[in-house]
Please model this.
Amino acid sequence: MQKSIWAVSVLMIASQLGGCAENAGSHEQHSKQTGEIVGTDTSGHHHGGENDQTPINCPMHNQSQQHQHGHNHKPFASTDEYIAHLDRSDRDQWQKPDEVVSALGLKGTETLADIGAGSGYFSFRFAKVLTDGDVIALDIEPEMITHIQKRAIDEGVQNVIARLAKADDPSVPNSADWVFICNVLHHIENTEAWLTRLHNQLSPGAKVAIIEFKPGELPVGPPEWMKIAPEKVIEMLGAAGFSLSRQESDLLPYQDLFVFIRK
Model:
């Protein structure tokens, strides 16, 4: 499989897109990006935009005072601060990224779309496992896409392909074997339509891994009213044409992991 790292000039979108960092800021309304993906993938991959949602994780519960909905999701003055927050080492203690990657049981040859990739927190970990596959890092934040592209070049990672996404369309490639959606589903405004689009874009048998925060008072995560109950997650995915393969509630202290299969 031919791989290459590509760099593109990301056009700034007129409306600023939000990014819910692991404990970042406002979670309610997301300005929708209408621009198409910019840039060209010279590797021959024709991938759609990133996850049509917010970048990777959700803000910490103890920063709930920053949840001023309808505003930009980034609670930091600079992109560098935001990225540092997403990648901070103490997050690993509860997000357990290596355990999550291992739990998916990847073979190493798959194409995986990381929706809401943010800083690439999970994307680059997946890339280490998918030695003969590809990671399509999708995000609606132009700065996050630029960051992932630069990191891939700096570290010589050839199987991470960053794509700018729109907020109302997953835009994953039909070739995707896996879709990874961590702390993102609760940000999507029209979840039913979004999941239906995701189903239509995937081939039968494709797998979708979803991580969402558990109900109840937690030291991290979105406010309680934003959370999606586990049974609701299963119901929504089922209505969109996905069947539940497994649910793990003990893998992570504050989150549930669901794996669905596209019918």
About this structure: Confidence is low (pLDDT under 50) at residues 1-73. The first helix runs from residue 79 to 86. Strands lie at 111-115, 134-139, 160-164, 178-182, 207-213, 242-248, 255-262.
